[in-house]
Amino acid sequence: MHRQDKMFTSLLICALTSLLTLGHASLPLVINTWPFKNAAAAAWSALQSGGSVLDAVERGCARCEMEQCDGSVGYGGSPDESGETTLDALIMNGDTMEVGAVADLRRIKNAIGVARAVMEHTEHTLLVGESASVFAENMGFIAEDLTTNKSVNIFSEWLKGNCQPNYRKNVSPEPSKSCGPYRPKTTWKQSKRARHANIHAHDTIGMIALDRDGHAAAGTSTNGLTHKVPGRVGDSPIVGAGAYVDSLAGGAAATGDGDVMMRFLPSYLAVELMRAGVDPSAACKSAVSRIKRHYSEFFGAIICANTTGHYGAACNKVPGLNKFHFMVANSETNTPVLKSVDCF
Amino acid sequence: MHRQDKMFTSLLICALTSLLTLGHASLPLVINTWPFKNAAAAAWSALQSGGSVLDAVERGCARCEMEQCDGSVGYGGSPDESGETTLDALIMNGDTMEVGAVADLRRIKNAIGVARAVMEHTEHTLLVGESASVFAENMGFIAEDLTTNKSVNIFSEWLKGNCQPNYRKVCGWCFRINYFFAPGMIALDRDGHAAAGTSTNGLTHKVPGRVGDSPIVGAGAYVDSLAGGAAATGDGDVMMRFLPSYLAVELMRAGVDPSAACKSAVSRIKRHYSEFFGAIICANTTGHYGAACNKVPGLNKFHFMVANSETNTPVLKSVDCF
């Protein structure tokens, strides 16, 4: 009897410890798309120094704007069809559900800063274009050229290559062979053009931050799609598409082929699923699956985190994306750590 | 026994007929927000003449752009802080899930036409601002002044009134007092195709460049031919944070009936913004439809237009707000 009691007690302790470990997920948490380590570090550091989750997300994304993460965020990257770099960003407060966003922002480098100003200094959610740039200047942001030698080179190489790839269809001259200007064709065959699944065309930093007190925030920043039609806005600055957060449910951020992904509101869907108790990995997977149903070859990934600090990610398996990397920092790791998930 | 048989047969016939009537919802269907009858008529007429659901939604919204429905659509309305009228529009194909949208469109009157061009002539979903206007001109749309005497008057009165109301923030939570009437439309045909669209000139006295819910897929409207469609109207800045059209369609996808789906979408926003101004219309794949609205001063009852094979003409419907 004595031995059985011992075994039983050991089993009980073992089970309880496992439950504790399973239930235990570390807060605070910072998680962002892609191996953008400095961004994660900047966000983590903001939290550690007493900043809010909004501060964390703003500083993290701003770090990528300054460092031009992978050429896909901030100035000097992704020139559009006319050679210009324009920026999109979003910031969301998971407590109040307030959102600030900018899209097609010209000549201002700190897009997420402007997004925060939209949230804090207007009643609006989204400001776009030239007017958004004027707003930014009025709010004290400095006007600067977003063009660099690098973006100029990308643009001139593209011109020399007959403007391939581009995002035109059903126009003439034939967009798969030629530069514009383009005029609409009046009749055409309905066919799906191959989308350009390209790891360098579609990056964005998307970030979620949660603190110990249950506050959550999310943010994104990008220079959008290289060679986009001028004025093109993708998923990043669109609430529910590029990111979504509700302190009562969790947060999610997406990256990839924004034109396609935004039609499925993946971040909003993932948060709704987590609201219903679905774990972050499964929520992320569902969001990816929904898009796959319609666009099986889409390029994209999503990160998810719930209110307890559990997190997950998912991505669509296509040439060029077998594995998706993301950064995590929480009170267990105490520093940004590179994580990855296999695409399906 | 004979009498009981008769009664039983009558009851059976009655029950079956009720079931048939309950189950029977008329397709094709056009439904749009607010009592914009001509828009509904234009859309219905497009369907009747063999047009697609996309054609229906485009013509319906375009009718409002031409007629400046209530001053809230098209040219000559809702001047921003600098006196300019800019337009937003969206069109969505429920079969392919393709979307075309424009926002902050300047000097082009037919915003939903440009939205359709974005969908048909690019791989993108949304084009904004000055660049969107250039795109439109390249696509053959004519540049015109969107300003009229009326919009100029609204603007100068506003300036004289110390620019009240405006959307600059001075307090933590500011009372939002404007009324907003952007139309949204859903069309379904007998073969199961569905489309949705919106068109608006946005919020009067908005900060220039402000984009609300109308051109944002999932916010202003959403449609999936396998589930249904929804379109929202009201305080776009607030509503777009809750993706009400997407949520309503997700609920209908799960079998929730349109009225309940609409109500849930409104409730979600109410939780955070109990005094928000807004309404939503919903329709599922069988042609059942519903609507819901948030009860606030100025909105006790929400009116919308419906045309289907039962009515054969646009009919004014309404729902009480809650």
Task: Give structural notes.
2 copies of one chain form a homodimer. In chain A, the strands form 3 sheets. Chain A has an 8-stranded mixed sheet with strand order 4-3-2-8-7-1-14-15. Chain A has a 4-stranded antiparallel sheet with strand order 10-11-12-13, with helices on one face. A two-stranded antiparallel sheet of chain A has the order 5-6. The first copy, chain A, starts with a helix and ends with a strand. The first copy, chain A, has one domain (29-149, 202-342): Glutamine Phosphoribosylpyrophosphate, subunit 1, domain 1 (4-Layer Sandwich), CATH 3.60.20. The first copy, chain A, has helices at 2-23, 37-48, 53-67, 111-121, 129-138, 149-160, 258-261, 266-275, 280-294; strands at 29-33, 87-93, 99-105, 126-128, 171-172, 183-184, 205-210, 216-222, 232-233, 243-246, 250-256, 300-306, 311-315, 323-330, 337-342. Helix content of chain A is 32%, strand content 23%. In chain A, helix 2 packs antiparallel against helix 3 (53-67) and helix 3 (53-67) runs antiparallel to helix 4 (111-121). By secondary structure, chain A is of the alpha+beta class. Chain A is globular, with a radius of gyration of 22 Å. The first copy, chain A, is built from 9 helices and 15 strands. Chain A: Cleaves the GlcNAc-Asn bond which joins oligosaccharides to the peptide of asparagine-linked glycoproteins. Chain A: One of its GO terms (molecular function) is peptidase activity. Chain A: Keywords: Autocatalytic cleavage, Hydrolase, Protease, Signal.
